[in-house]
Every structure is written in structure tokens, then in C-alpha cells.
Amino acid sequence: MDIDQHRFELLTRLGDSALIMGHRLSEWSGDAPTFEEDMAMSNIALDLIGQARLWLTAASQAEGAGRTEDDLAYQRDVRDWRNLHLVELPNGDFGRTIVRQYFFDAYHLLMLEGLSRGSDREISGIAAKSLKEVRYHLRHSSGWVVRLGDGTQESHKRMVNALDICTPCVPELFEVDEVYRALEARGVVPAMKDLQAQWECQVRTVLSEATLSMPEITNPMSGGRTGLHSEHLGYLLAEMQFLQRAYPGATW
Amino acid sequence: MSAAVENTRLRVFEVLDSVCDPEIPTVSIRDLGIVRGVDVCDGQVQVMITPTYSGCPAMQVIEQDIHEALGRIGINHVTVKQVLYPPWTTDWITDQGRKHLRATGITPPVCYACSEDSTETGISCPRCGSDNTSVLSSFGGTACKALWRCDQCLEPFDYFKPH
After folding, report:
1. What is the pLDDT of residues B18-55, one digit of tens each?
2. Which of A8, A19, A112, A198 has the fewest CB atoms within 10 Å around its CB?
């Protein structure tokens, strides 16, 4: 693979995780536990879908094959998606959504901070734009982790359960492959080892404030960035891509 | 720069003063810091704008409004270019923009956005001016606003988040 292909891979990975995370959150629109959370979920979803557009537009330009951001979003099948397993996990109850969101936000912010300091000007520009939004997301999700973990017996129990479901997706966040290593060598992406150490330290602090702890990971997920996904992604895409599949080329 | 080019630039800026954010129709896109520059070259006008939030749906409407407003004064060869860097910040909202926001019932950001943890004190009610206020929701009706309540006059109001 050459540098353009590496960039295309990185850009689709970033765009796909943002888009799938945004879509999952949009499923709460009109259905969240309170009105305020309904607005929060929808706002965060909108930020992430906006970021996904920036990444996927850049990806389509890097690819140079005539595909647009919409082609990438609506016309790829499961095996061509490059998102993390974490973001395709179904919403579950509010606690599970919050743990999933917190894990993602903490990772997302560190990644964007690293990218914004990186050597690729287009990528660092999008990252600098996005990280201001994600800082706000993290404040929201970490606040809820503490409130629910250190809340009632019921909310604590649900958070423990949510951690059991979300933690198998954690090791994948920090996986590196040939693409990542090549971009790391060029100074485009942050050193994954450092990022992981920072993530673990931050998460430990917040979980301890929430009277929670990380469970042991016995069955780690892997391979989302190379197109290996859980069964959940297919169902999500069936809904998200329905219109373009049923009416190809439909526009507003 | 020739006088004709400078003249066109000034006319363009004047028109842009009349283009408002569709979500906040009393504040112009210049006062919001969305317009980043205007280039005039060989009869072509390029307007550089920057999105407030990545997912802000107003950007497409703003682009269209710029074309229409310039078209009305006979400037038709216009391209609107989105620039991402440096990212938009509420620090670019002008004093006039802040005044108009408050008059619309939206409290402008009380602090500069460059600090990582923005303070949330001293946010006063745009109606009665009281500082006795509390946050209802960190996320409001649009990406750029949070929902607050005045504990004095009991009216809810929008707060433009420092960003």
C-alpha cells in the first residue's frame, strides 16, 4: 500500500466510527429517558455525523476513484466498514449507552488531540475542529458515569452490567496494524502506546470516582478496522442505508 | 490592489452584513465570525466561510443565502469555499454580534473559549439581567446553545456556549 491508500484507510476508519456512533445515538432521538438527554443525544449525534462527513469527504478525495462521501456512507457492505466494534454495540439501557459513549469519547478526544498535532495538514485541520466538540461530549458522558455508578443500587448494578458488555471492545481501540505503523512513522497519528496509557489512567480515575472498576477482559473483540464486525452492524446498515438501497441515487 | 477590486470587496462585505444565520436571524454571519475572507480576482468573487459546528445544518443555507444576496446586486460569479482551519471559535463573535444575541434572548458566551474548562458562572438572564441562573441542559435546541433558566424571573433562556 502507498501513502494515499494509507490515508484512505485512516480517513475511512475515523469517518466510519464517527458515523456509526452518531447513528447509534440518533436512535435515542425521541426515546431518551428525559427531554434534556434527548437533546443531548441528538446534538452529539449531529456533531459526530458532521465530523463523519468531513472525514469521508477527505477519504473520497484521497481515494480519487469518483466515489463521494454519500457513496461511502450508503453503498458499502459490512465487510467494507472500518469502524470499531465498540460503536456498533446496540444501545441497551441508558447506562450501557453511557459506558459505551464514555469509553469512546475518552479515546476519541485523545486520538483527535494527537491527530491535530500530526504532520498531515488536512487531517490535523479536521481533528482540531472536531476535538472542540468532543471535549464537550466527554464532559457529558463522564458526568453521567459518575452519577449512575455512584447513584442508586439499581443504577450501580446496571453500570456494572454495562461495563461487562463494553469492556471486551476496549483492547481493539489500541490495536495497531501495518497502516497505523506506517502513518505513525510519518508523524500523522499519535503513538498508540502513549494514547493507551493516558486512556487507562483517565478511565481508572473516573471509574473509581463512580465506585466502579474495570472488569477483567476475557473475550476481546478484534478486527473492526479491517472489516470484521459483529452481527449488529448488518442490522444497523440495513436501516441506515435503506433509502439509497431502495431508491439508488435519490436526492433531496 | 486596484480601486475597482477594492470597491467590489467593500460591496461584498456590505452585502455579507445583511446575511444572517438562519437559526439566529438577527445576527449576521460576519458578526458570528463565520466569514473568514473575501477574494476578488478577474471578476470572480470567492467568499471563505467556516462552519461553527461540524454538523451544523445551517451551513448549506448560509452558502445559498450568500449566492442569492450577492446575485441581487449583480455579482453572479461567486464561489463559497469552506475553510476548516483555524477552527471557528465564539471568540470571533463581534461586540455587535454579542449585543444582538442578547437582544434576541440568547446570552452570549461569558468567557473565552481557549481555556479547556470554560467556567459556567456569571451567566446572566437576557431578560431581567439577573445572575441568579442555573443550567437546565448542557445541550440546547441547536449545537451552539445550552438551555438555562433564570431563578429570578423564572424564564428559561438559551446560552451561547463558549466554543
Report:
1. 999 998 889 999 999 999 999 999 889 999 999 999 98
2. A198
Closest alpha carbon within chain A to B115: A132
Q: Which fold has domain A3-246?
A: Ferritin (1.20.1260)
Nearest to A13 by CA among A186, A172, A162, A119: A172
> What pTM did the predictor assign?
0.94
Shared domain check, B74 and B21: yes
Q: Please count the structural domains in chain B.
A: 2
Q: Specify if B106 maps to a domain.
A: yes
Do B53 and A126 count as a contact with CB atoms less than 8 A apart?
no
Chain A residue with minimum CA distance to B86: A125
ipTM: 0.87
Asked whether residue B7 falls in the same domain as residue B68, the answer is yes
Query: Any idea where the domains of chain A sit in the sequence?
Result: 3-246
Judge whether A25 is closer than 8 Å to chain B, CB to CB.
no
Residues of A in contact with B89 (CB under 8 A): 132
Q: How confident is the model at residue B111 (pLDDT cuts 50, 70, 90)?
A: confident
What mean pLDDT is reported for chain A? 97
CB contact under 8 A, A133 and B54: yes
